[in-house]
Design brief:
single chain, 12 strands, 12 helices, 6-stranded parallel β-sheet, globular, Rossmann fold, alpha/beta
């Protein structure tokens, strides 16, 4: 009954932590493609190839359902995966859907025409590849009208987090927020469009000000996944062991992950 969770590095651990809290009896297999992180500076074909390789490995672990806990992979590869690569008996889901649902206050299956929503000015913080894909804006436009999205490419933040340099990461966040505010002085909401960013949610909130509602993905994805599995219990895979896999150096990744989650995490080499 294992569920796969994939990220290019360790940011997806923020999602894993919340889904484990929601579903403590469900085994999860986490795959970190640390050898190729960050994905945010790669082109769409590279991201597709790396993502499908990781998903295939998670299928081998008995995970029929895989969550791309990586905004870059969700933005650059998910649509292509679902339309041209995915076997009928498998599922690969991304992390945009719960965000769009929360922002527009409508279910993903609601196919009625786009309508006005309460939020008009949205700040999007994401990796360069996610920003370039315009995937968030495209999905939002299917469901809402009159929303102005200002995207800020947050170069360097993921690298700093992966290296454990949180002082640099915080400085970069404040710089990127300042750059966005010069373009959109009064955002109503902010999307943290990378699963690494919840580690710095307080920094984003402080830099944006308390009047800006910050949407962080981890809790939204956890709630959405629990609901999805309640509606699709057949998507529990055959795997029954929780584990952590990485393409990087297991000891190094384990040490970083233990710092992130503040509990012992042991990665195995893929």
């Amino acid at each position: 009954m294992a569920i796969g969770i994939f990220d290019s590095g360790m940011g997806g651990l923020t999602v894993l932590d919340r889904v484990v809290a929601k579903m403590p009896d469900t085994p999860f297999v986490y795959y970190a493609d640390s050898a190729h992180a960050p994905y945010g500076v790669r082109d769409a074909d590279e991201i597709f190839d790396l993502t499908t390789s990781a998903v295939s490995r998670l299928w081998e672990e008995g995970c029929d359902l895989v969550i791309l806990a990586c905004n870059t992979a969700s933005a650059a590869a998910l649509r292509r995966i679902q339309e041209s690569w995915l076997p009928r008996e498998k599922r690969v889901l991304g992390v945009f859907v719960p965000l769009i649902e929360a922002l527009t206050e409508r279910n993903w299956g609601d196919n009625s025409p786009p309508r006005e929503v309460a939020v008009k000015n949205v700040a999007l913080f994401a990796t360069p590849a996610t920003v370039a894909s315009r995937a968030f804006q495209r999905e939002l436009a299917f469901r809402a009208i009159g929303v102005d999205v200002e995207a800020q490419s947050c170069g360097g933040v993921v690298d700093a987090i992966e290296e454990g340099d949180m002082i640099l990461a915080e400085a970069l966040v404040r710089s990127h927020v300042a750059a966005l505010l010069r373009k959109m002085p009064h955002p109503q909401s902010a999307i943290l469009g990378c699963t690494h960013y919840p580690l710095l949610e307080d920094v984003f909130q402080s830099a944006l000000g308390n009047d800006v509602k910050v949407f962080s993905q981890a809790a939204l994805v956890a709630d959405s996944l629990k609901d999805y599995l309640h509606r699709h219990p057949d998507m529990y895979g055959e795997g029954n062991v929780s584990k952590f896999l990485t393409t990087g150096r297991p000891q190094h990744v384990s040490d970083r992950a233990t710092q992130f989650l503040r509990r012992q995490i042991v990665f195995e080499a893929v």
